[in-house]
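User: For a reading group we're discussing how well predicted structures match intuition. Take Glycoside hydrolase family 76 protein. Before you show the prediction, I'll give you the sequence so everyone sees exactly what went in.
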Amino acid sequence: MLAASALAYITFPLMVLMAANAQTFVPNPGWRNTNIDVSTKDRIDIARDALNKAIAMIVDDSNGLKFEDGNYGPIGRLFSQMAQFDMLTKQTVYKERLLDFFPQAEKFRPGFVHSSINWGLSHSIAATQAFTAYSDPSFLEWAEQAWRGGEAYTLKEEELKTGRINGKNVTIRSECEGVSTAGGTFWNNKPEDPFVNALGTGSFLIASSVLSEATKNSTYALFASKSRDFYYNHLRNTRGDMLDGKHLNECQPSAGAYPANFGLVMEGLAVLTSVSGQENRNTYFSDLVEIVNRTVSNTEWHSQQGILSADLTARPFVELVGQYVVRGLAAIYDRNNTRSSLRTFVRQYLGVQYNAVRSNARGQGSSNDTYTVPWTSPQQPPSSQNATLETQINALSILLAAIPIQNDPPGEPEPSITPEPPKGTNRTTLDWRAIVGAVIGGLATVCLLTVFVLWLVRRRSRSRHFVNALDATLLPTEFANQSQTELFASINKHLHLGGPDGEKDRPPPSESGSGDLSGWSLTYLEDTDTGTDSSQAPLSMVSTAEIMSVLNRRLQGVEWPEDDPPPDYVSHNPPSSNRSTE
Ligand SMILES: *[C@@H]1O[C@H](CO)[C@@H](O)[C@H](O)[C@H]1NC(C)=O
Ligand SMILES: *[C@@H]1O[C@H](CO)[C@@H](O)[C@H](O)[C@H]1NC(C)=O
Ligand SMILES: *[C@@H]1O[C@H](CO)[C@@H](O)[C@H](O)[C@H]1NC(C)=O
Ligand SMILES: *[C@@H]1O[C@H](CO)[C@@H](O)[C@H](O)[C@H]1NC(C)=O
Ligand SMILES: *[C@@H]1O[C@H](CO)[C@@H](O)[C@H](O)[C@H]1NC(C)=O
Ligand SMILES: *[C@@H]1O[C@H](CO)[C@@H](O)[C@H](O)[C@H]1NC(C)=O
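Assistant: Thanks. Here is the predicted 3D structure of Glycoside hydrolase family 76 protein, as structure tokens, for the group to look at:
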């Protein structure tokens, strides 16, 4: 009996220490306006107006698309946004339009193959999203057709072995620094160009991942994992920056690391993580965490208030890079609704961008459906006439991403992202939260032990009946009639912030790579972010110290069987350790 309660005293501070040490995303203190105060209905109206404006920019009077070589990629991204709008709002507003638009796009560039491989792939991604939104098989056909265009310019082991690379008349290294170059996607279809880049490889990664998600065909998951490997082996430097590309005739990396490189791999990995088997999921997820961290903490790409500032120089036909970061983060938010500091971090970051775009980039009066750059500060004078298809699509990325966002209920602490303690050397670096946790835990232990000893002394001099009466008055009524096991279960649940029932992760796919992906679906308006387990409600009003003292008293009142293992709550996160994340 004594041993069990002593164990409870010792494990509690230990538990605080370990959880504080797990990695937690802490929102940037410079962030302002992280909450979105616009109603969901208004967000939908704002996004629809902006979409209609963008469409008006590219169609002629007879509804024909005004294609040029330089707007082929942006138009593919706009198609994605039209489908995404309907997915998010469960409507078919743009279905007929898209059924009409895709054949026009295929006619302009047969097979959707543009000289920029990623611009063709933007049509594959869009068509897959349209297939997901409307379940019309025509969209899947276009998606696969456009995907094959990208696949033709993606390096495969067999090609590298024979040295004959499809569409290229230049020597391509089969390895750089001893690692195979398979999985890289060329930037363009020019025979003499050996440049494989993040835009091409990242776009193919996304196209394959979303097709894998939509069709459950394992071929796509396999290609996606190859693209991911190329990214990690060849386009990532030792600091963890995503490089722009590599000239594979001599394994020469190009200088520069742009937000789009990070955003593309973020979006691809978010989808790939959600369709992957358990054995790869953890690796992909920790990659994702690192990329989010590196992107959002990059001070060159953000204003002091955390607003994306990488789009200051708008040049015609150059892709604005902010949209890729927003899309990547939205893909994480939409596909994984496990409550975590990462989710809160993403939500707040997107909130900052949304509010910035509305106040700084949006036109005024009758131009309120028009968006320009930059997002960081208002234009003087307002220049809605400077809006282009690209600035409009750039803003649409966040107007759409904001639709499913739900603010967290106030006062709910977020669990850290890695429930298990980090491995290796990380473990020795304690931050202040761990120290505060340990000190508080230690003090609590001393206090409780003192109370316990005093109480033991008192107990001997009083009748059993009196103690029970005292117990019943001091216990919160929810606990009064619970058995010891139930009490532990409740406490466990409280500390776990949601408990096993609150775990919103989907069941793992059965086979590696291939996959029963049925458990996964996109979570749009039914987002369960704010869903709280009602059984938690009484407990959340009780402080941990109260619980510990109640626990103590309960332990004294009931015989604890000597052989029973102590309750297992060591790996869960106490609410006190990471309140700072919200
Ligand atoms: C983000 O990066 C910083 C600096 O490298 C690191 O200290 C922190 O633990 C990282 N955060 C997460 C959640 O990975
Ligand atoms: C490949 O390039 C060489 C010169 O670099 C040229 O002589 C040859 O005709 C090219 N072959 C093709 C099929 O384009
Ligand atoms: C899976 O996709 C690949 C590539 O598009 C295709 O060749 C193959 O036939 C598909 N397999 C099935 C079972 O649909
Ligand atoms: C979802 O997020 C949680 C915590 O943020 C993480 O542990 C889990 O691996 C993620 N799952 C997927 C499939 O992304
Ligand atoms: C945008 O402007 C139009 C025309 O001036 C107006 O009817 C509409 O209410 C405005 N929308 C918003 C959301 O302010
Ligand atoms: C908007 O266009 C005007 C006239 O074409 C130009 O002078 C001004 O610099 C532009 N503003 C921005 C922010 O590009």
